[in-house]
Amino acid sequence: MHTHQVAIPAWRWHHQEAAREVVEPLLRRVADENIVLLSSGGSDWIDGSGAAEKVEGGYRITAHKVFSSGAPAGDLMMTGAITEEDGEQIVLHFGVPMGAPEVTVLDTWRTLGMRGTGSHDVKIDGLFVADDKIPLRRKAGEWHPAFQMIATIAFPLIYSVYVGIAQSARDIAVEFAKKKPVSHRTQSIAGRMDTAMTAAVLAHEYMVSVTDRNAPSSATINDVMVGRRLVEENAIKVVELAMELAGGAGFYRKNELERHLRDIQAARYHPLQKEAQSEYAGAMALGQSIDTIF
Q1: In a designed cystine with 52, which of 43, 83, 168, 221 is the match (CB 3.0 to 4.6 A)?
Q2: For the chain, how far is it from start to end, CA to CA, in angstroms?
Q3: Does domain 36-139 have CATH number 3.30.465.10?
Q4: Segment 267-280, tens digit of pLDDT
């Protein structure tokens, strides 16, 4: 679900010749050492989070990162923290070695669904990051070209998981329905379910086609997020209809539909959530600034 932490530097290696010497050492570590890269997810969207205190030769990092998917198994977390320079909030980006003594994985991932992602909180307490280990600095609270790239490349990967959950729920429900007597009601539910499933698949294919342009921009963010919204709405609808089609059997844990119903809810919470997505799309349509809409 979070393979974008490898996909993004791989994209840069292929499409940004000037970035090759920056990203190649990381990609070689992934290939040669099989290291697992983490995302600090919801902690580090456009505003950023955590504190970076300037010290000799670098920064001292103190932060509490949430939604750090894969935290128990990760080797390196790609994250950031905020410092102040000339009166402005500046987000510094860097990698955090998960084995460092200043880094602790907190047992917090006790959730409604998506429990298998292991998205525990991570506490960073006084970790030193050298100046030369900070590849990106950006102003907090507004879109940066790096986040145009992240948003364009990451979200088709993330939302492929929700398409998969919906497809699995659909297949389970159909098998249960086939064991029941034929009725117009079950045919109608199955038809609505498959219609929503097709809409989710088409929306996801559109997201992928936007990434294939290989030109991250404010426009590709808009297009990807429109697709993300359509996948969310239709994938959730598929699983809800699957529960209805399966009937009482869907209530049993052994049949896995109830897990799918819980897991699919997480599709609501990734950026851009529906109000921000609508505002962003509307500003794009009207030719207005989207710099601080996220």
Answers
A1: 83
A2: 21
A3: no
A4: 999 999 999 999 99
- What is the model's pTM? 0.95
Q: How far apart are CA 236 and CA 248, in angstroms?
A: 19
Query: Rounded to an integer, what distance in angstroms lies between the CA atom of residue 289 and that of residue 294?
Result: 12
Would you list the DSSP string of 149-216? HHHHHHHHHHHHHHHHHHHHHHHHHHHHHHTSPP-HHHHHHHHHHHHHHHHHHHHHHHHHHHHTT---
Per-residue pLDDT tens for 191-211?
A: 999 999 999 999 999 999 999
CATH hierarchy code of domain 145-285: 1.20.140.10
Q: What is the pLDDT of residues 22-71, one digit of tens each?
A: 999 999 999 999 999 998 877 789 999 999 999 999 999 999 999 999 99
d(CA 242, CA 172): 8
